[in-house]
Design goal:
Two copies of one chain form a homodimer. Chain A is mainly α and 195 residues long. Chain A folds into two domains: 46 residues; 133 residues, Tetracycline Repressor, domain 2. Helices cover 79% and strands 0% of the residues of chain A. Chain A is built from ten helices and no strands. In chain A, helix 4 crosses helix 5 and helix 7 crosses helix 8. Chain A is elongated, with a radius of gyration of 19 Å. Chain A starts with a helix and ends with a helix. Chains A and B meet through helix 6, helix 7, helix 8, helix 9 and helix 10 of A and helix 6, helix 7, helix 8, helix 9 and helix 10 of B. The first copy, chain A, binds a DNA duplex (30 and 30 nucleotides) through helix 2 and helix 3.
DNA sequence: GGCTGCTGAGAACGTCCGTTCTCAAGGCTG
DNA sequence: CAGCCTTGAGAACGGACGTTCTCAGCAGCC
């Protein structure tokens, strides 16, 4: 068991605990008990609890981005790659332990009190929007469309979390399909006269 | 200064504090200092801090719903009434103290630890979805469209909160206009063949 | 006016948090 | 094998939390 392995183990345990119960609801002694790593060692591995929180967010970002990328690459057409984002969300919402976006949760809990947490959340969301923008540009869509699709994805996450059902993913996906179809067909101007 | 007035004053003060700093970040002594109401009195007015949190959520729901209703009623056509929802969001996002949806924040912070808070958040969101569904039905739209527009509104709130800019409101509004136009024109079938 | 009962303020309480300290055990060096 | 030095565990610490207690002040009544 190398130091690095223990570190990763602690981060993984902390991730599950923080995500499942809320960050402030998990004390260092609980993390000690669940990870089997003594307090002394925890504090030699990390300078503070906040550092653990940041490491957890980093890991969560890496896993999430990697999973998303894998889902995207599995699709064949540019349009399917874009829609794969929502299928990825749908799969995620169905997991038992799903409790919303960990970044949004962390932001609500600590965003006003810890600037570094707020920054980590912001950069995660920026990264997601960048991925989406790239996919949208691949089908010739505008940045505006990318922003709209990102808003749908964000809304699906919070809606699924609060309602406790995964159906928001399908609704967001169908909404995205509509917006993409509109953009594809270049029908926005044509429809504008009817509204 | 009646008991009722003091109660309302405490709830208002607590709302501002909880929303601005996070619920767990505000202790009872801070609430005492900011409201000018002694701890003894606070605990005669409310049985616990959690009761104050619930009262705050109730008040926030009342104010928010009332503001939304006012914004809706000010619009003249059914379509404008529906889009007024997003203009209401836009105005809200521009307020300096905007820090996201207080209910989403509370859910992320306490949803896993306090079932009553989770319930309050769920019923607020259900109420919002019900309002939206009513407005959508008034223009002949489906429940599916209402769900999609709700997701857009949710996404706009978290996006605006995390990004720190109000532009998500406009993006969500334009996305909503697109979805409504598609629904209005009954063009979904026509477009399906092009996708 | 003196006694009584109630309300007020905030000191005090127990608990739990994040963090540090003590000290015992073990491995490497000579 | 003796000495030392690193590392381990978890008891201990200071502070902050939510909640309760004490007691001074002040009505109202005899």
């Amino acid at each position: 068991m190398t130091t690095h392995d223990v570190r990763e183990h602690v981060i993984g345990t902390a991730d599950a605990l923080f995500y499942g119960r809320g960050i402030q609801a998990v004390g260092m002694d609980v993390l000690k008990a669940e990870s089997g790593v003594s307090l002394k060692r925890l504090y030699t591995l990390f300078p503070s609890k906040e550092a653990i929180v940041l490491a957890v967010l980093e890991r969560r970002h890496a896993l999430w981005s990697q999973g998303l990328e894998t889902a995207i690459e599995a699709a064949s057409s540019p349009r399917d790659r874009l829609l794969a984002v929502y299928d990825y969300l749908a799969d995620w919402f169905c997991i038992d332990s799903f409790r919303g976006c960990g970044f949004i949760n962390a932001f609500g809990e600590l965003g006003a009190v810890s600037p570094s947490v707020a920054d980590a959340v912001r950069s995660h969301k920026r990264s997601f929007q960048a991925s989406l923008t790239r996919l949208v540009h691949d089908i010739g869509g505008s940045s505006e469309l990318a922003a709209q699709l990102a808003i749908l994805a964000e809304g699906a996450q919070t809606t699924a979390a609060i309602s406790g059902t995964p159906e928001a993913a399908g609704q967001a996906r169908r909404a995205a399909e509509s917006l993409i179809a509109l953009s594809d067909a270049g029908l926005r101007e044509a429809l504008a006269v009817t509204s």
